[in-house]
Design goal:
Cofactor: Mg(2+)
Function: Catalyzes the reduction of dTDP-6-deoxy-L-lyxo-4-hexulose to yield dTDP-L-rhamnose.
Catalytic activity: dTDP-beta-L-rhamnose + NADP(+) = dTDP-4-dehydro-beta-L-rhamnose + NADPH + H(+)
Strand content: 15-25%
Order of helices and strands: EHEHEHHEHEEHEEEHEEHEHH
Distance between the termini: 37 Å
Number of strands: 12
CATH class of the domain at 2-157 and 183-218 and 268-281: Alpha Beta
Number of helices: 10
Strand order of the largest sheet: 2-1-3-4-5-10
Mean pLDDT: 97
CATH topology of the domain at 2-157 and 183-218 and 268-281: Rossmann fold
GO molecular function: dTDP-4-dehydrorhamnose reductase activity
Structural class: alpha/beta
GO biological process, one term: dTDP-rhamnose biosynthetic process
Largest sheet: 6 strands, parallel
């Protein structure tokens, strides 16, 4: 079996290249081979590989930059997944794609289910929602996995930014009124491998149903709480003198304005994932511990 993986050098893509290996031959494509900024080129790629599964881990994730110029985000997050889904339908392949909690407006404090009303409050969220809707219209066998607050030991993310800033400054301020579940790329990749395996069995048995599923770590915290855990965990690994930061002050989103508005409530209800695929995601603190150990090992 062949699995076509796009975005193979990204945070989630790198982990997927590992976790999907036991399922078959993984054709891992970076931006040079699978350029989602050129959606018209993707049909030929799918035709040449002839995969049984397509996993799209490529995305435009520069949230603030998308606010100034949404066209590239719309192309990569909207038009390109539509092209891949159409190509998957023609190839008879299962199509797996990733989306985000940013398709919701972040109101209230209850975890959102998959069928909750969508109302993105920034250009990035709108581009990801457009991708979801285009995939559904394509008519292939598809699954969209919405996740939140993704990080890894590689790439640019909140964990690595906090470790850098914590080594440079004695005092930091971090937003405390946005709440969600920090989710490691490793968790996403390992869960995806299980989902793909079971989805292929469902297809073989004629009982596969396309749809959206929420996939994030268990538990919840604020960005401020996440930062505190990062610093505490790093000191436990690298010693109390490994960071300069001594004061971590909580602030509101209003005190840290950004070009793109962020949802205050990023909680996702993952019960459908458990009911269909039997997946019980680990707590976000466990994922963070593993990633900090990886970073420590790299250094």
């Amino acid at each position: 079996m062949k699995i076509l993986l796009t975005g193979a050098t990204g945070q989630v893509g790198w982990e997927l290249a590992r976790s999907l290996q036991p399922l078959g031959e993984v054709v891992a494509c970076d931006r040079r081979r699978a350029d989602l900024s050129a959606p018209a080129s993707l049909a030929a790629l799918v035709e040449s590989v002839a995969p049984q599964v397509i996993v799209n881990a490529a995305a435009y994730t520069a949230v603030d930059r998308a606010e100034q110029g949404p066209e590239l985000a719309d192309t990569i997050n909207g038009a390109a997944p539509a092209a891949l889904a159409a190509a998957a339908r023609r190839a008879g392949a299962l199509f797996v794609h990733y989306s985000t909690d940013y398709v919701f407006d972040g109101s209230g404090d209850a975890p959102r289910r998959e069928d909750a009303p969508v109302a993105p409050i920034n250009a990035y969220g709108r581009s990801k929602l457009a991708g979801e809707q285009a995939i559904a219209r394509a008519g292939s066998d598809w699954l969209v996995l919405r996740t939140s607050w993704v990080y890894a030991s590689r790439g640019s993310n909140f964990v690595k930014t906090m470790l850098r800033l914590g080594a440079e400054h004695e005092s930091l301020k971090v937003v405390a009124d946005q709440v969600g579940a920090p989710t490691s790329a490793r968790l996403i990749a390992d869960a995806t491998a299980h989902i793909v395996r079971q989805a292929l069995a469902e297809r073989a048995q004629g009982r596969f149903a396309p749809g959206v599923l929420h996939l994030c770590a268990a538990g919840e915290t604020s960005w401020h709480g996440f930062a505190q855990e990062i610093f505490d965990g790093w000191r436990a690994l690298a010693g109390t003198d490994s960071l300069k930061v001594r004061e971590l002050a909580p602030i509101s989103s209003a005190e840290y304005p950004t070009p793109a508005a962020r949802p205050l409530n990023s909680r996702l209800d993952c019960s459908r994932l458990r009911e269909r695929f039997g997946i019980l995601p680990t707590h976000w603190r466990e994922g963070l511990r593993l990633v900090l150990e990886e970073i420590a090992g790299q250094r």
